[in-house]
Amino acid sequence: MATTIEGYLYSFGPSRQGGVYSILTFCVLSGRHFSQSRHKGDLVSLRSGILDADHRVEDTGRQVVNGKILYTLRLYNVTDAKKEVLVGAVNSEEIAEWLKAFTSSLGRPFETVSAEPWTPTISLPFAYFGEQFAGDTSPTASPRLRPDSSALHRQREKSYTSLTTIGHESPTLEKSPSSVGFAESTGGGQASKWKLVRSENGLRFFQEKAEFPLVYKLPVMKAVGVVKAPADQIFNLIMDYGPERQQWDHTLESASVIETIDGHSDVVYIRLRQDWGFSRQRDLCLSRYWKREENGAYSIFYRSVLKHPLQAGFVRAYIHSGGYIVSPLKVTGGGKPRTLVESVLEMDTAGWSSLLGAGFSGYPTHLRDSLLRVVAGIREHVAAQRFNSCVTIIKRHIIEEYTEGSLQESNHDLAEPVKNAPFLSTSDDIEEFFDATMDQISETFESDQNVSEPVLPTGEHLKPLRVKVRSDHGAFDLSKFRGSVDRGPLKGGKHSFAEPDSSAFLLKGIDSLSTGKRVPAGQPFCKLVGMDWFKSKDRMDHIAGRPRSLVQRACPNEGLFFFVINLQVPYALHYSLVFYFVTEEEITEGSLLHRFIFGDDTFRNSRLSLIPAIPEGSWIVRQAVGTKSVPLGQIVEAKYHVGFNYMEIDLNLGSSGVVRGVMGLVFGYISALVVDMAFFIRGETADELPERLIGVGRCSHIQLDKAVDLPAN
After folding, report:
1. How far apart are CA 75 and CA 57, in angstroms?
2. DSSP 630
3. Are residues 103 and 183 in the same domain?
4. Is residue 458 in some structural domain?
5. Which parts pass through the membrane (predicted)?
6. Percent helix / strand / coil, the chain, rounded to 5
7. Is the link from the previous residue into 147 a cis peptide, with omega within 30 of 0?
8. Half-sphere exposure for 4 (CA within 13 Å, toward CB)
9. Is residue 116's pLDDT more than 50?
10. Is the same domain home to 348 and 421?
């Protein structure tokens, strides 16, 4: 089956005159063929072609383009990131369906279409949070970080700030040179539970159970309520800091966006109303980012950052972690949409009331609960706006499923050269389509008829000579494999690694194609025997091939085969978190793992996947990271190195906005986190099931300052 979706999307980008152009175009995605026209039914397309193996799609979030708020996508070429198309829609649900369609089309085999529709496993990207990553030189880096998009960034930043400011006659954009986020963690694990403490004004209030309750620490609280409105409408209401917010948020005196980082993240400065005796007025400086889940739920996360100077007469309160979870519920018999809204806060009010502790002063509890009660304000505000709560979004696109035969018939009238031309190779300058006259467009279209058919890359790889791990010399001592990070306990480890229980991760079972259910993973194919935490001024590639590496030092004559996962993190310096997995079984010829080792990079990228988990960490990190599988090979730049006794996979986490956002958040809390990572190769056919983990590892409370220099060759 192949997906067809069509409708109007805004195409935008930096113009040659230094401004930003934006034009409404009619877009059609049919299988792997994508086209853009000025109007529906136009005989000549502005751009038309196929999405080949080098094309990728990235969610670029919520942006302001020429005064209009758009939810946007970026379609780009991994071999040349300057070849890109930026499109957007005014409705988040509409752009989410386009993202799903693009992801599904790009995930299909290039030459043939699978009989079963492919369900994307990637959730919408996370955004920058706290300190922005530096040093990413990947060609697939987001255009927001490149100089040629500075005009678009300035225009978006200026417009967005003016649209989202209340309580100030002249909104100003203040930036602090400091980019260091305020990072404290609750230390609560995934096993933490909520206890219902009271019901008030139609809301339920829950308190998170603390492992070590302290009288001076304000407990983490959550307020839950049901609002009769669509989830995307409530999301827009929460995100907006326009005048309407004062109709439902009783805690707010003024607020403004002081920095726009990207379409998913910004920094907000807020002044709260003073309604408690002689206590001084509080203000907040919050880093905010959002994401949308595949089920239509929205998450908005906050934490305090040091990006706005302290103000005279105000006490700076801190939100360690907090935000909103907006989840759609099943439609009732009346047909009206309903949404579950949750607001969570872990905060410190600061000042003398904070020093006295929650057990001696009532103000910290009062302020926290007042901020949570705004959920009731949202509910009442929406109920009063009847035309909003009953509105039905009319989507301007059609989604259909076609078989391969009918899809070929529908495309039969397309000119063959255009049909086979890669979409992003039809022009070197997207913007010229929108500045040109119709005659120029026709000439450009005709000049692109001779584009040759793309050739899929086929790499030649060195095949390993040995794939058995049992030593010819008998049993071997795994303790000899030691990296710069020591092995530690599963619980309570400090700057250490361990192997968690693999059954906590769910993979496809033998019957998953028919039942759709996932089962607990069995024993991994490899054991984790060591871990390194390196730092360097430059990115570190092919570590296992270095003469002084753990692989070369530990097992030149042991008959072992290593899988090395090198997670490359561009930060103030370049860091590499390196996992060393060693096999304990013979790799069967023709198996999925065998084909992964011997296959080309296109096959490897389509199958390499990761399941993350946060067993110990703050609420905000657990919610942001989640536990969904991530197709690593499709969203980050991956390099594969195969040697005599190893296979190394270098994953440049700075090459993807999705992962940069996750790592930007994780690094703010890294010393307080326990992170589990399970690597596996995705199975798609019956003979590739059940899936099996390559290996699983746990990193406990990793310290940035304990990274060691990479040994010289």
Report:
1. 5
2. B
3. no
4. no
5. none
6. 25, 35, 40
7. no
8. 13
9. no
10. no
In the chain, the largest separation of any two C-alpha atoms, in whole Å, equals: 80
Q: Which tokens in the block code for residue 336?
A: 């009206």
Backbone φ, ψ for residue 677 (5° rounding):
-135, 125
Q: Provide the pLDDT confidence category of residue 87 given band limits of 50, 70 and 90.
A: very high
Q: What is the pLDDT, as a whole number, of residue 652?
A: 92
| CA 693 centroid distance within chain | 22
3-state SS, residue 587: coil
Q: What is the chain's alpha carbon radius of gyration, rounded to the nearest angstrom?
A: 27
pLDDT band for position 211 (50/70/90)? low
Q: What DSSP letter does each residue of 108-129 carry, written as one string?
A: S-SSS--SSPPPP-PPPPP---
What's the rounded mean pLDDT across residues 92-101? Answer: 91
From 29, 104, 84, 30, select the one nearest 634 (Cα to Cα): 104
Strands 674-681 and 203-208, by their bridges, are unpaired
Is 259 in the same domain as 348?
yes
- Domain check: are 338 and 435 in the same one? no
Q: What is the CATH number of the domain that holds 92?
A: 2.30.29.30
Q: Taking 50 as the threshold, does the pLDDT of residue 388 lie above it?
A: no
Residues 310 and 439 in one domain: no
Quick one: what percent of the chain has pLDDT higher than 90? 41
Number of structural domains the chain divides into: 3
- Which of 117-121, 251-255, 525-529 has the least mean pLDDT? 117-121
Cα distances from 487 to residues 311, 503, 523, 532, in angstroms, run 47, 21, 19, 11
Average pLDDT over residues 126-136: 36
Could you give the CA distance from residue 682 to residue 507 in angstroms, rounded to a whole number?
9
- Name residues whose C-beta falls within 8 Å of residue 466's C-beta, 6 or more positions apart in sequence: 559, 561, 644, 645
CA-to-CA distance for 438 and 11, rounded, in angstroms? 17
Listed in order, strand segments (DSSP E) in 622-712 are 637-642, 646-652, 674-681, 693-700, 708-709
User: Are the C-beta atoms of residues 524 and 500 closer than 8 Å to each other?
Assistant: no
**How far is Cα 357 from Cα 337, in angstroms, rounded to an integer?**
42
Specify the DSSP element, H or E, that contains 592.
helix 592-598
pLDDT computed for residue 478 by the predictor = 62
DSSP conformational letter for 155: H
Q: Is there a domain that residue 179 lies in?
A: yes
Residues belonging to the chain: 713
- Cα 388 to Cα 381: distance, rounded to the nearest angstrom: 10
Distance CA 4, CA 98 (A): 10
DSSP secondary structure, 541-572, as one string = ---TTSTTSHHHHH-SSS---EEEEEEEEESS
The C-alpha atoms of residue 143 and residue 76 are separated, in whole angstroms, by 10
